[in-house]
């Protein structure tokens, strides 16, 4: 092909490329014009549609960010009114009564306490499931309370409060399917009431699950024959299968004061929740009987005759065998909404506090305040760690006095708490012994030197912190917790110490370590709205029982339905 023919072919190709831009091309071809128009309309619609969508999204995004801002403001407002709450506590909102803000240190500390609970509980699950208590060194279970799953029941509410839901559910299943009270076992009426009845009622109040109430009723019914005595003051031991009651041989036939006067909270609560008054009547009769001969100083000896209702010449103490009788006088008054119906309890308690004040002495040289024990007219300068519940009790009851007295009682509570804290600080392990002697010029010296993971001091620190807002009590509690971590934590759980001076360990994880010690420590670092003291009263094993608000302010039995409504679980409250 020659040069001229190649050039004419290329010019015709180029003209065919540009012909689509020439309007005349389309005028001659109407179908193509229509197609072009259609493509143009579609493209324009697409662009318009995208732009509208973008505009709509922008409006939506603006609206949402405005809502986010409003929610942030509401959250801030809620935080400043109620204190910030850790949703991991249970994933539920809680009633609030006091304004004490949460802070990062508290959050960190309660997580550490929760870790401790997880360690204690999972060790129990692994090595002692269904038994009363775990022996962490030998990694096995022991049935110290007749095989009623004491640790499991004692732990229910702690698990619930800490938001350990899976663990709680596993324990709930065991209660529903394996807990059997029909045992040929001579049980302590006191221990069974405070741990088992109290633990089940608390689990019921928190979860609303009726299985706990049914079981509480079952065991309480088995305990009831213990009150069938001439005075209504109970025998302290009963066979769970055949209902035969008796007192321990070593009391010489007497009933023990604390064992006989520490069932009122649980039995009153049970009557309220079942509508059956019999529990209330049995427990109240004890107090009415003791009130007949109640002395002006409100102090009773630890041995009481169930036949005559009078005390024998035995020790008066706020420690072992006396302690929780005094505690329950105050707490029944709180449980009963502080009304006329329960005024007797407050009056008796105030008398007893006069008695307590008469037993108070100060050590030399450091002026530690302590509560003596009394035998006849003789005072012994000895105080049990068990009596360290008293600072908390005094603080809790101080509000019912006129202002000047209230201040005096609160300040006594604070002095006693300082002494109890020093029971811990004065030993090489920083854990308290079982009791202390105060000798002139020597301040405190440990007597019985074991530590069995008891809760009383941290219990008092919890009340004092709640009621005064003084963070010093949290610091003291944290120091005690660290000493437990250092000395008592072992691979298989937590153990007590045979001797707080040497740190030699024992082989027992007491159920009250999970029920009380860890619970009070956790609450010490939680917002005050978590188990508010306006809504709950703790039994002596630290099981919170909901205070039922009565319309008429009376302590009458309520139906289950009324309780459920007053519990307010539907609103997700505690
Ligand atoms: C618990 O069982 C109760 O707190 C009781 O009132 C006293 N003893 C233990 C804890 O130390």
UniProtKB/TrEMBL annotation:
Keyword Phosphoprotein: no
Catalytic site positions: 191 (proton donor), 323, 434 (proton donor), 456
The protein's name in its UniProt record: alpha-1,2-Mannosidase
Calcium among keywords: yes
Topology within the bilayer: Single-pass type II membrane protein; Single-pass membrane protein
The enzyme's E.C. designation: 3.2.1.-
One cellular component term from this protein's GO annotations in UniProt: Golgi membrane
Top-rank lineage group of the source organism: Eukaryota
UniProt enzyme class: hydrolase
Chain segments annotated as coiled-coil in the UniProt record: 54-81
Chain intervals with Basic and acidic residues compositional bias: 559-574
Family, as annotated: Belongs to the glycosyl hydrolase 47 family.
Role of this protein: Class I alpha-mannosidase essential for early N-glycan processing. Progressively trims alpha-1,2-linked mannose residues. Produces Man(5)GlcNAc(2) from Man(8)GlcNAc(2), but only Man(6)GlcNAc(2) from Man(9)GlcNAc(2). Has difficulty acting on the terminal mannose of the b-branch. Involved in root development and cell wall biosynthesis.
Single Gene Ontology BP annotation: carbohydrate metabolic process
Cofactor: Mg(2+); Mn(2+); Ca(2+)
Region (Disordered): 551-574
UniProt cross-references to InterPro entries, sorted A to Z: 6hp_glycosidase-like_sf, Glyco_hydro_47, Glycosyl_Hydrolase_47, Seven-hairpin_glycosidases
GO molecular function, one term: calcium ion binding
Record keywords, A-Z: Calcium, Coiled coil, Disulfide bond, Glycoprotein, Glycosidase, Golgi apparatus, Hydrolase, Magnesium, Manganese, Membrane, Metal-binding, Signal-anchor, Transmembrane, Transmembrane helix
Catalytic activity from the UniProt record: N(4)-(alpha-D-Man-(1->2)-alpha-D-Man-(1->2)-alpha-D-Man-(1->3)-[alpha-D-Man-(1->2)-alpha-D-Man-(1->3)-[alpha-D-Man-(1->2)-alpha-D-Man-(1->6)]-alpha-D-Man-(1->6)]-beta-D-Man-(1->4)-beta-D-GlcNAc-(1->4)-beta-D-GlcNAc)-L-asparaginyl-[protein] (N-glucan mannose isomer 9A1,2,3B1,2,3) + 4 H2O = N(4)-(alpha-D-Man-(1->3)-[alpha-D-Man-(1->3)-[alpha-D-Man-(1->6)]-alpha-D-Man-(1->6)]-beta-D-Man-(1->4)-beta-D-GlcNAc-(1->4)-beta-D-GlcNAc)-L-asparaginyl-[protein] (N-glucan mannose isomer 5A1,2) + 4 beta-D-mannose; N(4)-(alpha-D-Man-(1->2)-alpha-D-Man-(1->2)-alpha-D-Man-(1->3)-[alpha-D-Man-(1->3)-[alpha-D-Man-(1->2)-alpha-D-Man-(1->6)]-alpha-D-Man-(1->6)]-beta-D-Man-(1->4)-beta-D-GlcNAc-(1->4)-beta-D-GlcNAc)-L-asparaginyl-[protein] (N-glucan mannose isomer 8A1,2,3B1,3) + 3 H2O = N(4)-(alpha-D-Man-(1->3)-[alpha-D-Man-(1->3)-[alpha-D-Man-(1->6)]-alpha-D-Man-(1->6)]-beta-D-Man-(1->4)-beta-D-GlcNAc-(1->4)-beta-D-GlcNAc)-L-asparaginyl-[protein] (N-glucan mannose isomer 5A1,2) + 3 beta-D-mannose
Pathway: Protein modification; protein glycosylation
Sites where the protein binds Ca(2+): 540
Disulfide bonds: 388-420
Intracellular or extracellular location(s): Endomembrane system; Golgi apparatus membrane
